[in-house]
Amino acid sequence: MELRDDMTENARTVAVTGSGTAEAVPDLLTVSIGVECRREDVGAAYAAAGRAAAGISAVLREHGVPDPDISTSGLNVRADVVWKEGQGQTVAGYIASSILGVRLRDVAGSSEVIAGAVAAGGNDVRLNGLELGFADPAAVTAQAREAAWQDALATAGQFASLAGAELGPVVSVTQRPGPSGPIPVAKMQRAMATDSVGIEAGQSSVSATVDVVWELR
Predict the structure, then answer these.
(1) What are residue 18's DSSP bridge partners?
(2) Over the range 179-198, which residues count as b (16 or more CB within 10 Å of their CB) and which as e?
(3) Domain 3-26+137-216 belongs to what topology?
(4) In sequence order, what are the residues at sequence separation of 6 or more whose Cβ sits closer than 8 angstroms to the Cβ of residue 72?
(5) Residue 205 — very low, low, confident or very high, per pLDDT cuts 50/70/90?
(6) Using CA atoms, how far apart are residues 214 and 16, in angstroms rounded to an integer?
(7) 1-58: pLDDT as tens digits
(8) Residue 54: how many CB atoms within 10 A of its CB?
(9) Alpha helices in the chain (DSSP H)
């Protein structure tokens, strides 16, 4: 924790940095599902990637995932270049790939949805990772801010007491930029099941940091 005292001829002040954390069970799982198709012909690779992506999207919709929660990005077609002795670099085929970003709002049932998507994509599917978070982080963020404020208030009160003074009005409050997403607290557990990987949400935390300046009186 960063602390500093600031005194001028006109007023005595104490400036304190407070930090706080709030924890909650995540209610949103964002998963990145990739499709990568390698074929001899560029058109065949592109068409295969389109079919695989469409099949995955269809399964997601069958499980109740709405269209706004399915997004496509990273569409790419490239030559598969290999080195051959005496020939140098040669084109062995073509690779078409794309990425589906999927938001799953039923974390408890997400393993079944992901297993269905993997089955639909077959050997061409790639799971690029997932992130647990909050559909509406405002409430958790507000709790983190309150915890940061109480931390700053307690520290400032101690400094005021040591200086033989009392806290006066607040001069300024500044919130520092924090991390862009929730931070896992308890580990996300993965247990192998018959046909899917079980996902347990655990808990995630949101942190806040504030700089507060009080007058001393």
Answers:
(1) 210
(2) eeebebeeebeeeeeeebee
(3) Translation Initiation Factor IF3 (3.30.110)
(4) 53, 98, 99, 100, 101
(5) confident
(6) 8
(7) 333 444 444 579 999 999 999 999 899 999 999 999 999 999 999 999 999 999 999 9
(8) 12
(9) 42-62, 110-121, 138-162
- d(CA 143, CA 41) in angstroms, rounded, equals 56
Contact 36, 95 (CB under 8 A): yes
Stated pTM of the model: 0.68
Task: Report the half-sphere exposure of 10 (CA within 13 A, side-chain side).
Answer: 0
Q: In this structure, what DSSP letter does residue 62 have? A: H
Minimal CA–CA distance to 107: which of 33, 216, 200? Answer: 200
Report residue 191's pLDDT band, with 50, 70 and 90 as the boundaries: very low
Domain ranges in the chain with CATH number 3.30.110.170: 3-26+137-216
202: left (phi over 0), alpha (psi -120 to 50) or beta: left
Domain range 28-133, CATH architecture:
2-Layer Sandwich (3.30)
Nearest to 4 by CA among 191, 130, 149, 155: 155
